[in-house]
# Entry
Amino acid sequence: MKLEEFRNFFFDLDGTIWRWDETVDGAQDMLKTLRDAEKNVYFHTDNTLLSRKGYARRLEKKGIQATEEEIITSGYVTAEILSDREILKVYAVGEQGLTEELTETGIKITEDADHAVLGLDRKINYQKMEKLRKRISEGHKLFNCSSENLFRRENSKLHQGAIAESLSQFGDVKLTGKPSEAYRKVFKNYFSYFPGKSLFVGDRLADIETGNRLGMKTAAVLTGDITEKKINQADEDAVPDYALTSLDKVRRRIP
Ligand SMILES: [Mg+2]
# Structure
């Protein structure tokens, strides 16, 4: 892996930079080394618990330099997709990061809406599920911010994938997170970069497929969801160019 050929580095957050509470070993040093070498560092996440602003603050608190403009969340992407389709009100299930991105884009969150948005919601319940089910059963759309199956913390896991999966039997669930085409379109408008000079790093095959389809080189880290077995069994478009056991390995290769 020749790091000097890259100008831009796009890092996933959950499972790549941190396991929510704890920063992955070597991540902080590696990011600082990249900044010192005047590389562009960006972050992408399909975790909608926080907004871009919220993630910038959280990264700073962990000693990682980041601005709102360097971060893209699927909450932001979903807001852009809705606004593009002139859907200006939705019923939303999710937390602060999702509602912030939607309302900042001018999308009203109300029970009086046909279409719905689903983000990670740690207080999801039968009532909220029924409101989502009813809408898609009636032919309206459900925009799902993430194809992530598990929200992992150091000592717990939330099976968020099961929610979207169970709703998909009732109607149209449209993925707005990685690796969907809708996501990639918003991503390309948000960042300016040369694909040939860019490395996309993540811990899920959905990350790798996204990076590959954006025309970038891709690196899988084995600190989250991806295992060597998953790489061996992956579809051709989700095979990474590089697999790294840790981000520390990247740092040592920076000239
Ligand atoms: Mg991840």
